[in-house]
């Protein structure tokens, strides 16, 4: 739908053309934060638009987020609470759920034998447990004991066979308790056990931008990659692997899918990587005029100041 690389402002189009455009896709993927909600608050009009697309226009609607701080069922609960009528939790695509799906289809991973080491928050551990996969490490963990030197820690923990044996994967997510010890355990597993998978929820370099500029998951991942000499596989946007289960099952055809989001590097790049149309909304970190001044960033096919603006056409 991109015409000469120019982003089309939907509010500038006559209603008839918007109706034609609405008929050009049958599946809608929408980002979460900055697009339809901000943490636990709906962005005004977003639920009404997604519900109308689903209930009145027959679109299949999925919410696709890089939020690895909640499980799929917790995100579904938030969606319901905020008035989004997605039919079930399978319509939530989240990194924690993608990690589970990916591990289950890995030939080298056996959930009856392998456990997962998590450098990340407790939600990753909950999602794995709910799906019958044992994990350890998520959440709070004691750093070096008082008086400990790194040699003491390494001798105490990393010389044991169980420090790397039977660990089928290292999963990294956002972790406010990130520490040298966690990084050391992760690197030890990845170096000692080359069959272990190395998965990350996302590579967002900065957390909670633009309100803060503090380390995001990508910062932790980069440190572990540098030491382990291995590249992590991203289980969030913009990696197209996220959509493989839906594409393989025939539930989603990229050429008939619209991706809605607020972040060019994640959402618009994801749409482009998957061959989908893209709609940028201006409720996140990137107003269109700023984006257009940064031509190296992926430019969207369509633009709306906020998703709720689409309601007048539905
Ligand atoms: Mg967003």
Automatic annotation (TrEMBL):
Keywords: Hydrolase, Magnesium, Metal-binding
Any Pfam family the entry gives: Hydrolase_like
Catalytic residues identified in the record: 31 (nucleophile), 33 (proton donor)
Family in the record: Belongs to the HAD-like hydrolase superfamily.
Name of the protein this chain belongs to: Blast:Phosphoglycolate phosphatase
Record-listed substrate binding positions: 207, 237
Source organism: Drosophila guanche (Fruit fly)
GO molecular function: metal ion binding; phosphatase activity
Cofactor note: Divalent metal ions. Mg(2+) is the most effective.
Gene Ontology cellular component annotations, sorted alphabetically: cytoplasm
Gene3D superfamilies: HAD superfamily/HAD-like (3.40.50.1000)
Chain positions recorded as Mg(2+) binding sites: 31, 33, 262
Cofactor: Mg(2+)
């Amino acid at each position: 739908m991109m015409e000469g690389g120019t982003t089309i402002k939907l509010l500038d189009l006559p209603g008839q053309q918007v109706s034609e455009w609405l008929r050009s896709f049958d599946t809608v993927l929408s980002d979460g934060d900055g697009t339809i909600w901000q943490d636990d608050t709906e962005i005004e009009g977003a639920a009404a638009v997604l519900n109308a697309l689903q209930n009145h226009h027959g679109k299949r609607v999925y919410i696709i987020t890089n939020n690895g701080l909640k499980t799929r069922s917790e995100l579904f609960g938030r969606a319901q609470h905020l008035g989004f009528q997605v039919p079930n939790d399978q319509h939530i695509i989240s990194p924690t759920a993608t990690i589970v799906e990916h591990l289950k289809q890995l030939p080298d991973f056996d959930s009856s034998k392998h456990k997962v080491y998590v450098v990340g928050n407790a939600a990753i551990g909950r999602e794995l447990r709910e799906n019958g996969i044992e994990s350890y490490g998520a959440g709070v963990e004691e750093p070096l004991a008082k008086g400990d030197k790194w040699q003491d820690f390494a001798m105490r923990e990393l010389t044991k066979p169980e420090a790397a044996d039977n660990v089928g994967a290292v999963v990294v997510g956002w972790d406010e308790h990130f520490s040298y010890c966690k990084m050391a355990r992760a690197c030890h597993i990845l170096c000692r056990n080359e069959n272990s998978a190395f998965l990350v929820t996302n590579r967002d370099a900065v957390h909670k931008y633009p309100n803060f500029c503090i380390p995001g998951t990508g910062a932790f991942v980069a440190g572990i990659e540098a030491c382990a000499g291995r590249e992590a596989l991203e289980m969030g946007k913009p990696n197209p692997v996220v959509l493989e289960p839906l594409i393989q099952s025939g539930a989603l055809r990229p050429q008939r899918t619209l991706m809605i989001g607020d972040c060019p590097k994640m959402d618009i790049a994801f749409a482009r990587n998957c061959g989908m149309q893209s709609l940028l909304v201006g409720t996140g970190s990137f107003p269109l005029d700023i984006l257009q001044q940064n031509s190296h960033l992926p430019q969207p096919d369509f633009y709306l100041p906020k998703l709720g603006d689409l309601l007048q056409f539905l």
